[in-house]
Amino acid sequence: MDRRTLLTGLGAAGLGATGLALVGCADSGESAADGATPTGAAEPGALPVTIEHQFGSTTVKSAPQRIVCVGLKEQDDLLALGLMPVGATQWLDFGEGKVLGSWAQDKARSDSLETDITVLSQDDGIQFEKIAGLRPDLILALYAGLEQSDYDKLSRLAPVVAAPKGLVGYGIGWQQQALTVGKAVGRPKQMRRLVDDVKTKISKAADGHPEFAGSSGLVATLYEGIYLYGPQDPRSRLISELGFELPAGLAEITGKEFGASISTEKIELIDTDALIWLVSPSNGDFKKLSTDKLYRKLRVVREGRAITIEALSDLDNAFNFCTVLSIPFVLTDLVPKLAAAVDGDPSTGR
User: Fold this and answer.
1) Over the stretch 300-326, which tens digit does the pLDDT of each residue have?
2) Nearest in space to 134 (alpha carbons), one of 88, 99, 100
3) Which domain holds residue 303?
4) Which of 4, 220, 231, 273 is a Cys-bridge partner for 215, taking CB atoms 3.0 to 4.6 Å apart?
5) Taking every annotated instance into account, which residue ranges of this chain make up the domain Fe/B12 periplasmic-binding (predicted)?
6) Per the omega criterion (within 30 degrees of 0), is the bond before 281 cis?
């Protein structure tokens, strides 16, 4: 399992497909009365714009018409604005030739539009030649583990917007990612409204469950032992926004990565008020762990505080994405599960 596939807690492989997408042919969900900018246009005064990032800065001079997503989920942010990329990297298994999850598909004009997007595989690294063939005028690489050499090659093809300085690879939060995309395509005000709406939904969920505040929470999977997702991982960021506190020392364990493995000798680290497993219950290693004496003695297990999100389910995919589009879907399903976990009553179920 490599660094990218570890992001899912599952190791879902990407599938390749070809085709050409249209830019700006999705419904943004905002009417003219909402102040939405017409499809394909930038907001007045929004461009040109210079965006600082980990490799320096990038200037976008005019509204991009052929956007390629090298990052794994920026297509959601574009779609939220009523835009579509000409190419996007497939990360999760939405089906052959698909790069939109179920929560995003109703934002697209039709299923045929989605399959028109040229799908980029990540199996053997960035497909530079395929990207060049798409003639991009903007490349988004925010939720990515970009190296300097990757950035240099991509920059020869089009302006590249990479992750901000100071973040681990794949460590950008959903808000910063969305706002950066909005800025890059000349839609900062529209994206700010969308982000604020999702922030309100998160706040309402947290306010509706004051028991979340101060409770400890953690997201984990199985890889070379128990793999813990760190503070910068988008999933960890989301449960923190709901009021949960990540275990002390987690940042030191994960270091400069989005997560890290621990041995079962340190299993007490997962003994939290709510534990979210990103792993299929049928996973052989998970079955083995579930019968481990040390694991079964943990309070998180004895009191039924562990949540298992079924691999490849809509919730699993949406939680892995953690975008301005997927988070409302996540809240609907995950919040009740977290409430049942925090109450410490095994009979409430997960």
Assistant:
1) 999 999 999 988 899 999 999 999 999
2) 88
3) 208-348
4) 273
5) 66-342
6) no
Domain count for the chain: 2
Q: Rounded to 5 degrees, what angle do the CA atoms 183, 50, 178 make? A: 25
Show which of 146, 172, 200 is a domain's final residue.
200
Q: Which residue has the higher pLDDT, 73 or 14?
A: 73
- pLDDT band (50, 70, 90) for residue 109: low
193, 75: one domain: yes
Q: Same domain, yes or no, for 120 and 103?
A: yes
Are 134 and 29 in a shared domain?
yes
As given in the structure block, the two tokens for residue 330 are 């996540």
| Whether 185 and 311 share a structural domain | no
**Smallest Cα–Cα separation from 170: which of 83, 236, 240?**
236
Cα–Cα distance, 216 to 73 (Å, whole number): 28
Residue 125, pLDDT > 60, answer yes
CA angle 63, 169, 324 (to 5 degrees): 50
**Region 86-109 average pLDDT:** 86
Structure tokens at 248: 């002390």
Helix, strand, or coil here: 74?
A: helix
Task: Indicate the pLDDT class of residue 176, thresholds 50, 70 and 90.
Answer: very high
- Using the Cα atoms of residue 135, residue 102, residue 205 and residue 316 in order, give the sign of their dihedral: negative
- H helical segments located in the chain: 3-6, 74-80, 102-105, 111-115, 128-133, 148-155, 174-184, 188-207, 234-241, 250-254, 284-290, 293-297, 299-302, 314-321, 327-342
| CATH number of residue 169's parent domain | 3.40.50.1980
Q: What is the pLDDT of residue 348?
A: 78
| Mean pLDDT computed over 61-68 | 96
Q: Are strands 56-60 and 49-53 parallel, antiparallel or unpaired?
A: antiparallel
Q: Give dist(CA 157, CA 99) in Å, integer.
A: 22
